[in-house]
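In the previous lecture we treated proteins in isolation. Real proteins rarely work alone, and many bind small molecules. This record shows how such a complex is specified: first the sequence, then the SMILES for S-adenosylmethionine.
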Amino acid sequence: MASYRTAAGDGRDGRLQSPTFARNSPPIIARLAPWLNGLAGPVLEIGSGTGQHAAAMALAFPDLQWWPSDPDAAHRASISAWQAHLRAPDRPALALDGAADWAADPGVAALGPLGAVVSMNVIHISPVAVARGIIAGAGKALGRGGLLIFYGPFKENGEHTGAGNAAFDRGLRAENPDWGLRDIADLTAWSAAAGLDREAVIAMPANNRIVLFRKA
Ligand SMILES: C[S@@+](CC[C@H](N)C(=O)[O-])C[C@H]1O[C@@H](n2cnc3c(N)ncnc32)[C@H](O)[C@@H]1O
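The predicted 3D structure, ligand included, written as tokens:
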């Protein structure tokens, strides 16, 4: 996560910046709006990173309670710093590990049934246990009709969706053999086992996808 160690501003308030946030945020907000508007229950983000998306989403969807989380303490500090800098609602990030039984975390339980669980650019840069854990936890923590939403690069039925993603996947696996692009077909099977039905796959710029599942 070396790229996230880039400081924003004068570097004194702990804000880190993602090189892809500015490009990716507007289309994510636009394409998720029809799904997020009117959602019942709070939204929990797993792996919020710098916190730029969390602050942007909280400001774009003021009727939602967008709760960030990240296992990395420097990232949690950055999340708070972005909330303060952008005057977004002050919601301290939870220290959640997606591979653990995060739905049982007291901070998650205190939120009550969730309207959505969102994880962007996390499950390819972590072991497969994180993808499976996020899905299993969403099955427990979402309220009826709640959404599990993944954003990032994915494989589809065993194939890469483009040469760029194939090269990216090779690079990830070279860096850590446990990392790599996940296949939407696998996510769909794991989600079905957790009581979540696939609702939509949305093509996004740069060969990314939004993948949505709904709790029956
Ligand atoms: C590439 S960053 C994406 C951050 C942010 N969602 C974004 O799109 O800018 C991946 C994030 O996943 C977090 N992460 C890594 N392992 C994790 C785990 N086991 N559970 C939850 N988050 C994890 C990292 O700390 C990092 O903040």
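Summary for your notes: The domain at 2-215 is CATH 3.40.50.150 (Rossmann fold). The CA atoms of residues 9 and 15 lie 7 Å apart.
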